[in-house]
Amino acid sequence: MDIPFEDYSRENKFLLPVAIKQFREVFGLSNDDDQERFLNGFEARFAKFNFSEYAIAVNSGTTALELSLNALGVKKGDEVILPSYTYIATGLSVMNLNAIPVFADIDKDTWTISPGSIRKNITSKTRAIIAVHIHGNPCAMKDIMEISRKHRLPVIEDASHAHGAEYDGIKVGNFGVGCFSCYTNKNFGCFGNAGLITVNNKLLYKAILGLIKVSNDPAGPLSHRTPCRMGLFEAAFLNAKLPFLGEINEKMVYLASLYKKKISAFFNVQKSEKNAKNVYRDFVILTKDRVRLEVFLRKKGIIAKSRYRSPLHKMPYFRGFVNPAARLPVTDEVSEAALALPIPLFLSGEEIDRICCTLRKFVSLHA
Ligand SMILES: Cc1ncc(COP(=O)(O)O)c(C=O)c1O
Q1: What span, in angstroms and rounded, lies between the C-alpha atoms of 360 and 212?
Q2: Which residue has the least CA distance to atom 1 on ligand 1?
Q3: Angstrom distance (rounded) from CA 233 to CA 15
Q4: Hey, where are the domains in the chain?
Q5: What is the distance in A from the centroid of ligand 1 to the CA of 61?
Q6: Pocket lining: 62 vs ligand 1, CB cutoff 6 Å
Q7: Distance in angstroms (rounded) separating the CA atoms of residues 367 and 359
Q8: CATH class, 244-366 region
Q9: Could you report the per-residue pLDDT of 6-61, keeping only the tens digit for each?
Q10: What spacing in Å lies between the alpha carbon of 156 and ligand 1's midpoint?
């Protein structure tokens, strides 16, 4: 039988009875206030899960990033430092505010933004840093927060892959402003787009709400509001999923540990900071022979994917912002070689054995 990269229907099946209960509750909400209370209830539950003061439920991870940058005062012409090894939305959130993305390199072991490279890219125009916990792996937050304090630069954590991941025993999304995507393919995904912001600062919380909740109040703030609250059915589904998120993450950690045991002698795999807990939204290996390996696996019924074929600094859309003299050697190396292996929640130990045997066979054939 084939091993799919993902199968959302199978992964979410166990949630159907609890989700239906939640959907019924939404059908029973008779007015705007009740609907708002329902959403606020979900926000409070996620904030509690994350040990954050506040959570704000929005319609996507991109929106979460954009609102956070906006509320922090990032505007046209400001520079924002971010990694280039990430999903395009991290960069677009900066561009959407007419700010300038400045790409930093990543660390060769963790593949997260390198604090040394952040330091090198700080200028008088820098207004914020976005740290992406890529594939679920927490960034070097101690060093990043030191830079933040020294240069008075706010940090946004793009925790889209990392709901429940920890650094120094603290859940990500509590160091700076936490931005989470809850798109289908995340550990805490729903069906389609949704996102969350976590904040521990009341003023910032109010500033973000101020960008979302705009009314016909002549004395109110002028805002370029676009509707961006999370839908009630997405919140209902995530309400049903939240109590299982810890278990889901543990299962991902377990599956990743099986992979690591069997193939880290043959392939480079992502490493974590010693005090970090990766939640493995992806399990990624590096291979110099990516296309051939992907085809080889596919022929054996195993679907692997290279998620970010191109780092952002090589995409035409961002080219105008890239300093031609700047080099991102680790980003280039990882982007060219990264291949995500299947790690759906239901994967069995036997299936991991089969994948790893196939990988080793490939190595022996092409050594
Ligand atoms: C690292 C990263 N940042 C931001 C986003 C954007 O999230 P969304 O698709 O919910 O807008 C994603 C989505 O996959 C992502 O992977």
Answers
A1: 51
A2: 87
A3: 14
A4: 8-243, 244-366
A5: 5
A6: yes
A7: 12
A8: alpha beta
A9: 999 999 999 999 999 999 999 999 999 999 999 999 999 999 999 999 999 999 99
A10: 14
